[in-house]
Inverse folding.
């Protein structure tokens, strides 16, 4: 049920032959034969769990996996094959181009009442569905700002300084208890959920894992530094209105203060970050390296595509009267819960 036991990471449950082969390989020694990628659906469970597992070696890793696998040439070749399949699929499914101002203006003017998870939750106030949403987002928020730190040595001048300023806030302004990933762990506790790192990976369907994989893809590769900045800007620009709506929903439902605090923090901090990202980071980077503009645009478009796919999947499940999780039993039953 869980990739976390007593705080120690174990390998997740496979979702197909490729991910099963990767898990089996990682229980061996670095240098052991690594399976080929083969032909896998670029949007499918098997590819994304295999890719997420490879990427996790660059984050916290797994207790049962030899750390030497992180830079094993054979595993890196496999990861590169999966990355190529995924990045090609993303390029095929977005319009591309170099209209950076148009993309940024769209992010700022998107209607607040657009269909989506927040709109659905505002209409239904279903505590079970809200906790499902928290479970999905935990896969992202456990890593929240980490991949963006990889781009810092790849930037110069004002773009570097401005991105570091945003990251400083993301990491709590020097206070460990205010790190946004910690605030989300507190939210999970407040919602009666397990705050453990990647505790719910086995229960979360692919749309969220694909979004997190894309963040890792952009962060780990210097050539995708423009796309990572585009992704980061998209998150910071769209966060305040969505977070404000969730604050309102949570307060109306009488949620634990830790749940409200997480989203209120994003209303206040990200409203400032929006301007810093747009002018200090993107503006300076585009001026210094105009050839990166199409990559920044791609990062924005890919993020919007994957967020829309995630939102559509979750809302479609709820409207059909079924859970959006692969394993709904991970939600603890709370018969005396005031929200039910």
């Amino acid at each position: 049920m869980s990739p976390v036991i007593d705080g120690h990471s174990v390998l997740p449950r496979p979702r197909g032959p490729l991910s099963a082969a990767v898990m089996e390989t990682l229980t061996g020694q670095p240098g052991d034969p690594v399976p080929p990628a083969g032909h896998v659906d670029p949007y499918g469970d098997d590819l994304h769990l295999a890719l997420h597992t490879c990427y996790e070696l660059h984050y916290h890793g797994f207790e049962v996996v030899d750390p030497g696998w992180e830079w094993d040439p054979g595993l890196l070749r496999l990861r590169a094959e999966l990355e190529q399949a995924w990045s090609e699929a993303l390029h095929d499914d977005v319009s591309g181009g170099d209209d950076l101002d148009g993309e940024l203006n769209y992010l700022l003017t998107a209607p607040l009442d657009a269909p989506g998870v927040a709109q659905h939750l505002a209409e239904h106030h279903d505590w079970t569905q809200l906790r499902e949403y928290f479970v999905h987002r935990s896969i992202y928020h456990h890593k929240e700002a980490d991949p963006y730190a990889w781009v810092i040595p790849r930037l110069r001048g004002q773009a570097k300084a401005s991105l570091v300023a945003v990251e400083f806030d993301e990491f709590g302004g020097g206070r460990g208890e205010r790190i946004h990933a910690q605030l989300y762990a507190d939210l999970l506790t407040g919602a009666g959920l397990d705050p453990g790192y990647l505790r719910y990976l086995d229960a979360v369907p692919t749309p969220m894992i694909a979004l997190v994989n894309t963040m890792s893809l952009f962060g780990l590769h210097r050539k995708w530094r423009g796309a990572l900045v585009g992704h980061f800007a998209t998150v910071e620009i769209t966060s305040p209105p969505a977070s404000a709506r969730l604050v309102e929903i949570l307060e109306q439902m009488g949620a634990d203060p830790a749940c409200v605090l997480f989203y209120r923090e994003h209303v206040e901090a990200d409203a400032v970050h929006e301007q810093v990202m747009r002018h200090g980071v993107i503006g300076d980077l585009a001026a210094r390296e105009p050839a990166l503009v199409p990559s920044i645009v791609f990062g924005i478009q890919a993020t919007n595509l994957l967020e829309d796919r995630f939102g559509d999947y979750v809302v479609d499940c709820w409207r059909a009267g079924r859970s959006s999780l692969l394993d709904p039993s991970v939600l603890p039953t709370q018969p005396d819960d005031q929200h039910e």
